[in-house]
Design brief:
about 240 residues, alpha+beta, six-stranded mixed β-barrel, three-stranded antiparallel β-sheet, 5 helices, about 25% strand
């Protein structure tokens, strides 16, 4: 479900506190395996920025490849079922003032900059610049499997994940992995949102299955129309007599 915190009441510190308290409460509900918060969910992510590696030769920002990016809370990869290939996931220690900036990247980005991965090159511990204005970059602490953040029909693009604690956002999605039908827990999850803030509405309640189907819906419609058109053409040809040249 999507939650949009009013900026007049929630600054960055209060945003972090809200998301942390909400996920703690939801994760404790019977029937819930894990819960997390993300700036966007897979197949719905529109954000991208130029990316570079601090330890490699400098590249002008206009010549850098693009990487999609999303701010996520600890437990994101476990909740969404995204395999961790190397390194670690984010933890509660990745908080403001708790250490250096960190990032997790996917294997598409890794192979773009380190063709020898996973054999001769290890990106863990290297530093990544995402967009302009970073002085030291973010330390790469984990590598995850490729995810089509832009949708199944979009070209594969590199992905970068940042701790939501470092990059707080007022608009985000709460994702919950459940032991059974997730829609049966909607009211229980919504009640925990109201327990944290009784005036906070939620919207866009849907399952990941729905998001996947929505991502390929246009492709399905195109294939259906092509199939119908081909059938009409075959029927029309069958009605016309054979003609010798």
């Amino acid at each position: 479900m999507h939650i949009s915190l009013p900026r007049v009441r929630y600054d960055g510190r209060k945003q972090r506190a809200f998301w942390e308290e909400l996920t703690r409460r939801v994760a404790a509900l019977p029937g819930v395996r894990s819960a997390t918060v993300a700036q966007t969910l897979p197949m719905t992510n529109p954000y991208a920025a130029p990316v570079a590696i601090a330890e490699l030769p400098p590249v002008r920002i206009g010549d850098r490849p693009l990487s999609r990016y999303v701010s996520v809370m600890p437990g994101y990869f476990r909740t969404l079922g995204i395999p961790l290939r190397r390194g670690r996931e984010f933890s509660d220690k990745d908080a403001p003032g708790g250490g250096p900036l960190v990032a997790i990247v996917d294997e598409t980005l890794v192979r773009r900059f380190w063709p020898g991965y996973p054999g001769s090159q290890d990106p863990i511990g290297r530093h990544l610049f995402l967009g302009p204005g970073q002085e030291h970059g973010s330390e790469i602490v984990g590598i995850v499997a490729r995810v089509r953040e832009g949708g199944l029909s979009a070209d594969t693009q590199a992905e970068t994940y940042l701790p939501l604690a470092h990059v707080p956002v007022p608009d985000a999605d709460l994702a919950v992995r459940t032991q059974s039908d997730p829609l049966r827990l909607v009211n229980a999850v919504r009640s925990q949102v109201l327990a944290v803030d009784r005036d906070q509405p939620v919207s866009a309640v849907r399952t990941m299955e729905y998001i996947v189907n929505a991502s390929i819906g246009g492709r399905k419609l195109t294939m259906l129309l092509l199939g119908v058109f081909a059938g009409v053409c075959r029927a029309e040809r069958s009605r016309q007599p054979d003609r010798a040249l």
